[in-house]
């Protein structure tokens, strides 16, 4: 008795009419039948309508909120069905108001969520109006078709409903895969229900790029709340981190949205081998952008800046989790320009490129072979790499405006293309022949000295970036300063070396204490650059012979000097502005200054911020170049043009301050919000001040949000 007892039930549904039928088997105690059933075995039978290519559901009368369900046998070879619904009222009827009706269909397929094969449409019908709805179906699987009058619809509703199954079926390749270099892929299609017009067309619409974790995943036990009540099972997690930059492909995709996919996990919830899966997406400031799970949805990302994706998977067995330590994910984006794929009737035509496939009629019970060619490399997104995947749709039926419904399977079939290696670039890159560089007549010893000096500059740059604020007095003096001074002593006119020193002095970690040194470093560089020579070189139009190697070499050298001049002037202007602001603050708090202070102030103010800004404008337009926004904001604020300040801050905030990167002072989004809050405070907008201060905290959290 401990193992239980079983019994067999046989059900013969052959004489049942189409529809849903229920029954139950009751088990009674023979010794006491009056006590009622001990158990119940429910039985449900769903009998479909007879399998036909055309099913007439007849005239259906609906009472308020009534639902009528029909179960259809979808014939093999059907890929879509046209459902025709017609309101039986005539134009002469007194009640000519519209009737809102709901059409709902669903098919249940093994290991597939029901919503992936579910379709719903609202039909607003006038007297005598008919509408045809095309719905994709899978042959050989029952389909439930339900019609219901909307709950708020008034009056009586009578509809004529007809279902017509149609189909052009790809044989063996429901998701064709094109490999780079293969030329294309053959696809055989057949029509099993009726004669169909075929004119295949294919296009690629989305771009998927693989991402590997930044480092191998580590399995960790979760907290006390993730231990089973029986105390015999612990839940573990693995968190994998991925990073990518959307701006690298911004020109080739539509918008800034993307969809993260985990191919081995997505699409499964209750049937999943793991307890849970979740992805958190952050911007470069650690702000949470969105959440994704088994059914990923589009996430909006900023136009610029790094995006971080964290994937968490949980399970009670750490061994199973460790199998995902190198899990690859895919980032899907919609391409800004769809790629059309050519279709041919033979392999020979595909390789020659003509003639293309022409529309023809596919007779019932016959098949034909088509060839979908791979796209030209020139049509691929510029940022595509080998191994990327382009996905899209392929349709086989011709469709047409004179046919009921769409005339083809809605949504078509999936098609994929695996990107291969990029084509070798031509010698001239399409820009004309590159000029030959001038002959280097220097000795090998001179070349070696230049290479060594370049290496020293690179080493100094790394050493400068490693110096921390707390090490300012010790680390810098011992490592950076001694090395820099010794190299400058032997190379006092090397501008790239002097630029390293200027950037080091102007580092945000300590620049406020070294403004005078920043100005001195800028003056040293400016003294090494002959501005008159630059003016003579660029002339009026800036023309130079691009086919002359000596001219190209000279232009490159002059460009480097010009860039150094612009950066030195910009950094000097900013440092001068800060010194002037400090002096102004001192004057506000101190009514009398010593004579020495007055002399020092007068000496340091020989070149003002406005003077330097005027000099800088001779070489670059700081108003259009947002990398110099820190100077533009300072100028507008000094002029009292707070509206212009707010307008520029708004523009910078929209891109999270990414436009200022690469300039003399990159400004983060929290800093931009703080600056705007100070402007609002000056204008007396206290409620906006509080809003921007709170937003500043939310836009740049100290840590990533937890799972």
Total E-strand runs? 27
Low-confidence stretches: 596-605
- How many H/I helices? 14
- The gyration radius over C-alpha positions equals 37 Å
Main sheet characteristics: 8 strands, mixed
- The helical percent reads 25-40%
Give the averaged pLDDT, no decimals: 87
End-to-end separation: 48 Å
- Beta-strand content: 25-35%
Oligomer: single chain
Which structural class should the secondary elements be placed in? alpha+beta
**Shape estimate:** elongated
Write a short abstract of this structure.
The chain has 707 residues and is of the alpha+beta class. Helix content is 27%, strand content 28%.
How would you portray this structure in words?
- This protein has 707 residues and is α+β, with helices and mostly antiparallel strands.
- The strands form six sheets. Strands 12, 14, 17, 20, 22, 24, 26 and 27 form an eight-stranded mixed beta sheet that branches. Strands 15-16-21-18-19 form a five-stranded antiparallel beta sheet.
- Mean pLDDT is 87; it is low at 596-605.
């Amino acid at each position: 008795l401990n193992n239980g007892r079983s019994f067999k039930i046989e059900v013969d549904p052959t004489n049942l009419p189409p529809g849903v039928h229920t029954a139950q088997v009751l088990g009674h105690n023979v010794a006491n039948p009056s006590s009622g059933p001990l158990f119940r075995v429910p039985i449900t039978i769903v009998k479909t309508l007879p399998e036909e290519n055309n099913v007439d559901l007849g005239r259906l009368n609906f009472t308020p909120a009534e639902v009528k369900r029909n179960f259809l046998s979808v014939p093999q070879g059907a890929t879509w069905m046209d459902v025709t619904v017609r309101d039986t009222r005539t134009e002469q009827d007194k009640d000519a108001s519209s009737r809102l009706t709901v059409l709902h269909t669903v098919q249940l397929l093994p290991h597939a969520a029901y919503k992936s094969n579910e379709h719903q449409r609202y039909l607003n019908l006038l007297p005598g109006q008919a509408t045809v709805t095309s719905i994709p179906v899978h042959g050989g699987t029952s389909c439930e078709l339900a019609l219901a009058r909307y709950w708020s619809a008034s009056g009586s509703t009578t509809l004529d409903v007809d279902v017509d199954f149609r189909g052009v079926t790809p044989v063996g390749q429901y998701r064709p895969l094109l490999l780079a270099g293969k030329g294309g892929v053959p696809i055989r299609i057949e029509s099993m229900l009726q004669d169909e017009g075929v004119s295949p067309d294919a296009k690629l619409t989305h771009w998927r790029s693989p991402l590997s974790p930044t480092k191998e995943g580590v399995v960790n036990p979760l907290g006390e709340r993730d231990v089973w009540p029986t105390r015999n099972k612990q839940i573990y997690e693995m968190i994998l981190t991925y990073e990518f930059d959307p701006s690298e492909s911004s020109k080739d995709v539509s918008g800034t949205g993307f969809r993260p996919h985990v191919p081995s996990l997505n699409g499964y919830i209750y049937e999943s081998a793991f307890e849970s899966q979740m992805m958190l997406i952050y911007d470069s400031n650690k702000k949470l952008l969105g959440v994704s799970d088994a059914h990923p949805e589009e996430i909006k990302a900023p136009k610029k800046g790094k995006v971080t994706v964290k994937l968490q998977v949980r399970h009670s067995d750490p061994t199973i989790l460790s199998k995902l330590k190198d899990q690859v994910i895919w980032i899907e984006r919609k391409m800004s320009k769809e790629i059309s794929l050519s279709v041919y009737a033979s392999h020979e035509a595909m390789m020659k490129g003509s003639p293309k496939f022409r529309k023809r009629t596919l007779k019932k019970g016959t098949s034909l072979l088509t060839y979908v060619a791979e796209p030209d490399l020139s049509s691929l997104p510029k940022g595509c790499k080998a191994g990327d995947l382009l996905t899209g749709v392929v349709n086989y039926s011709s469709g047409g405006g004179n046919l009921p419904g769409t005339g083809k399977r809605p949504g078509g079939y999936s098609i994929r293309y695996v990107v291969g290696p990029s084509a070798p670039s031509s010698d001239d890159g399409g820009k004309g022949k590159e000029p030959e560089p001038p002959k280097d007549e220097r000795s090998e010893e001179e070349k070696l000295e230049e290479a060594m000096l370049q290496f020293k500059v690179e080493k100094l740059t790394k050493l400068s970036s490693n110096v921390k604020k707390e090490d300012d007095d010790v680390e810098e003096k011992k490592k950076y300063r001694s090395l820099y001074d010794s190299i400058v002593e032997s190379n006092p006119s090397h501008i790239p070396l002097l630029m390293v020193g200027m950037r080091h002095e102007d580092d945000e970690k300590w620049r406020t204490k070294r403004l005078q040194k920043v100005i001195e470093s800028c003056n040293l560089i400016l003294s090494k650059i002959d501005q008159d020579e630059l003016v003579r070189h660029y002339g009026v139009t800036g023309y130079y012979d691009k086919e002359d190697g000596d001219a190209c070499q000279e232009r490159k050298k002059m460009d480097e000097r010009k860039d150094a001049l612009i950066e030195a002037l910009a950094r000097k202007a900013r440092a001068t502005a800060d010194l002037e602001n400090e002096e102004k603050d001192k004057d506000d708090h101190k009514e009398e200054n010593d004579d020495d202070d007055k002399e020092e102030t007068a000496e340091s103010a020989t070149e003002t911020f406005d003077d330097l800004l005027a000099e800088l404008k001779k070489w670059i337009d700081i108003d259009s170049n947002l990398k110099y926004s820190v100077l533009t904001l300072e100028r507008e604020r000094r002029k009292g043009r707070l509206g212009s300040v707010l307008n520029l801050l708004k523009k910078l905030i929209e891109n999270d301050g990414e436009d200022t990167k690469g300039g003399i002072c990159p400004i983060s989004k929290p800093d931009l919000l703080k600056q705007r809050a100070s402007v609002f405070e000056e204008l007396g907008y206290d409620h906006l001040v509080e809003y921007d201060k709170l937003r500043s905290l939310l836009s740049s959290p100290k840590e990533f949000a937890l799972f």
